[in-house]
Amino acid sequence: MRSRRSTRLWTVPVLVLAAGLVASACGSSSKKATSTSTTPATAPPTFPAGTTMANIQAKGKMVVGIKFDQPGVGLRNPTNNSFEGFDVDIAKLMAVGIFGGSPDTLGNKIEFVEAVSANRETFIENGNVDAVIASYTINDARKQRVDFAGPYLLAHQDILVKASDTTIKSVTDLNGKKVCSVQGSTSEKNVIAKAPQAQLLSFDDYSKCTEALTDGRVVAVTTDGPILAGYVAKSNGAFKVVNAPFTDEPYGIGMKKGDDAFRAFLNDRLEKIEADGQWASAFQATLGKLGLALPTPPPIDRYVSGGSPSATTSTTATGGATSTTKAAGATTTAPTVTTTVPATTSTSTSTP
Amino acid sequence: MDVVLDNFGGYVDATVITVELTLLSFAVAFVVGVLVAAFRVSPVPPLRTVATLWVEALRNTPVIVLMYLFFFGLTKVGVSYSPFVSAVIVLAAYTSTFVAETVRSGINSVSRGQAEAGRALGLTFPQLLVLVVLPQALRTVVAPLGSVFIALIKNSAIAGAFAVLDIFGFSKALLNADAPPIATLVGAAVAYLVLALPAGWGVGFIERRVAIRR
């Protein structure tokens, strides 16, 4: 009796494990062909052996990290597992440069995985993705760990308020007001710098911020304009963007540090789609539909990479006191996160 | 590990917040939990029903869903607490169900003769519970209550997703500021370990002190 009982107990974790494996196996095939046609419109180009382009071609698919929760930029439609947004379209146009054909004939040659802000560099360093196209601002701190092709879009940080709000016209109006952003994000640091008296209520994602704005817990949400435009579209007229841009956020394609051939390929490809109008039609089909005016694409920055990642120590997120002498801006400070938590008095962690 | 050393002060502040969250929530959860357990064994049917509903509704809902409903749902009807207070209320309510079930199991372990003897002496039900049954029941459930407490330490991380800078919230903020993830999260794990290990020892100490020698 005793032995039979223990056998049965064993089967429980085994079953749970098996169920988990099945679930993850199903999850990994999470891309949808938008078209059943498999005949490429153009022949796939050939690349020198050993390059990242050739490797992607050989493995038959390009894996791109995108945001899953930003309407107009990178969004997963959970009902049919399809992806939409400007970042998605840029990713498809990059993949077309490797596989030939057109964005509609890529099918499962492109796979999207969710890259949240906190794991973008790690995904690239570990090779989980070939590239990250996820409202990814190019800055020197990030260049310590990854390289960027592009920029392919110059975004600006802006302010989201309720449609009825008339008091907030620029970032300085946020002083003394309750403002929502994401804990530790660049957007949060920027608003602290430009409106030091703003009372920040910072969550771990922007959808909670829009919920807090609806509820009146905060009067404004701040991050990059394209992301805010997506939330305006989703809000059915409840929100509006103030249209008072106060930073420049050049969005780049994140990729493995030191892979200059791949970076040159992506930059060439970006210049090509900007010249032949595909960039503009991708913008119009996504962010343009949200009411953003078609901008001129920013000039491609073909900078000289700082070398392989092993050569640079990771100095990111060091405290303000230990600012090392790297390239300008290479030292990010610890997040100056101020919450409106009265009982806890965690006003800040460390200030620059 | 640089990231942990450079932000050591931040980790300490965050750990203090986690301790505050845990202790406040557990204090409330313990009182509510014992009360709910008493309701569940009481001879009054409406009290039993209320207590059963409380336990089954809260125990079977993920704490993140409870937190979301409480934090954003209640604001829609005009009730709004700060993130920290919201987290304490939700964690206390959720944990109270586990305390209640643990205490109830302790009550059931007290031999029937004890209750019969109490009734024979003319004790009312509350007297019987407070003077005879609970003192014996609580002693037997110190170890499982300790497990509930340690689970609460870790469950308190939910506050970090709702604008409280506890250990989890602080690590998340560091990660969003491009900190190296492994070191940051190992730092968080160590901080939770620093709280949970002594909690376990404390439970062992209390258990030895209050044990009934049979």
Low-confidence stretches of chain A: 1-7, 24-40, 309-352
Q: Based on DSSP secondary structure assignment, what is the total number of beta strands of chain B?
A: 0
Largest sheet of chain B: none
Give the helix/strand class of chain B: mainly alpha
Mean pLDDT of chain A: 78
End-to-end gap of chain A: 66 Å
Binned, the helix content of chain A reads: 25-40%
Features:
heterodimer, A: alpha/beta, three-stranded parallel beta sheet, 10 helices, 13 strands, disordered N terminus, B: 214 residues, mainly alpha, 0% strand, flat
Structural commentary:
- The complex is a heterodimer of chains A (352) and B (214).
- Chain A has helices at 2-28, 52-59, 86-99, 120-126, 140-143, 186-194, 206-215, 225-234, 260-275, 278-285, and strands spanning 62-66, 69-70, 74-77, 82-84, 110-114, 131-132, 146-155, 157-162, 178-182, 199-203, 220-224, 239-241, 249-256.
- Chain A contains 10 helices and 13 strands.
- The longest helix of chain B has 34 residues, at 8-41.
- The model of chain B has no long low-confidence stretch (mean pLDDT 91).
Summarize the SSE layout with pairings.
The complex is a heterodimer of chains A (352) and B (214).
Chain A: H1 2-28, H2 52-59, E1 62-66, E2 69-70, E3 74-77, E4 82-84, H3 86-99, E5 110-114, H4 120-126, E6 131-132, H5 140-143, E7 146-155, E8 157-162, E9 178-182, H6 186-194, E10 199-203, H7 206-215, E11 220-224, H8 225-234, E12 239-241, E13 249-256, H9 260-275, H10 278-285
Parallel strand pairs in A: 1-5, 1-6, 9-10, 9-11
Antiparallel strand pairs in A: 2-3, 3-4, 7-13, 8-11, 8-12
Helix pairs in contact in A: 3-9, 3-10
Chain B: H1 2-6, H2 8-41, H3 45-59, H4 63-76, H5 83-109, H6 112-120, H7 125-140, H8 142-155, H9 167-176, H10 181-210
Helix pairs in contact in B: 2-3, 2-5, 2-9, 2-10, 3-5, 4-5, 5-7, 5-8, 6-7, 8-10, 9-10
